[in-house]
């Protein structure tokens, strides 16, 4: 057996082994991962794509972690997710599916707001989160009520989950609501709740 054939067999075995595993948190590669591009000083396009073994929940958590990571790398404290139509940005790679080792002929891409759902051959479902984020600090000029996340909270709450490949529990922290002239508050604190039922008077014994 020639050395070239041995190398080919080893490479095929490695690809086969990778195919049976969920996408790790990584820059985009054969099994998926994150990619992105800078739109302007405060805006960045973030995308995370998983393979057929990566759940929708995992892809979303990896996407949020990447958003927080990019925010900190650019020196900002908060980020909000905005529609790409506002900035006019496009996905960073038009041939993203082919570039990650997926066969374009076996797939059709269905674009929705977030996540992008990619249906693959053989019944597999591939999930992708793709959106623009707007990064800002406490001194940001805000003209209307917006919802965003604190990057350090996302990093702290999802760090164990991301770096263990989903083996450690991790949840996305609650978003913050930012409103002109008011301190930020947790988004969940603004949700309506059922009225408290009046207590029935107790009968005298």
How is the topology of this model organized?
Layout: H1 3-19, E1 33-38, E2 43-49, H2 56-73, E3 78-82, H3 84-87, H4 96-99, E4 108-110, E5 116-119, E6 125-136, E7 146-150, H5 151-163, E8 176-179, E9 182-186
Antiparallel strand pairs: 1-2, 2-6, 3-6, 3-7, 4-5, 5-6, 7-8, 8-9
What does this protein structure show overall?
With 205 residues, the protein is α+β, with helices and mostly antiparallel strands. The chain has a domain at 22-139. It is built from five helices and nine strands. The chain has helices at residues 3-19, 56-73, 84-87, 96-99, 151-163, and strands spanning 33-38, 43-49, 78-82, 108-110, 116-119, 125-136, 146-150, 176-179, 182-186. Strands 1, 2, 3, 4, 5, 6, 7, 8 and 9 form a nine-stranded antiparallel sheet that branches. The N and C termini lie far apart (96 Å).
Biggest β-sheet strands, sense, barrel? 9 strands, antiparallel
Distinct helical segment count: 5
Specify Rg, calculated over alpha carbons: 22 Å
Indicate the mean pLDDT: 80
Beta fraction of the residues?
15-25%
Order of helices and strands: HEEHEHHEEEEHEE
Q: Using DSSP, what is the number of strands?
A: 9
SS-based class: alpha+beta
Spans with pLDDT under 50 lasting ≥5 residues?
6-19, 92-122
Q: What is the CA-CA span between the terminal residues?
A: 96 Å
- Spatial shape: globular
Q: What level of helicity do the residues show?
A: 25-40%
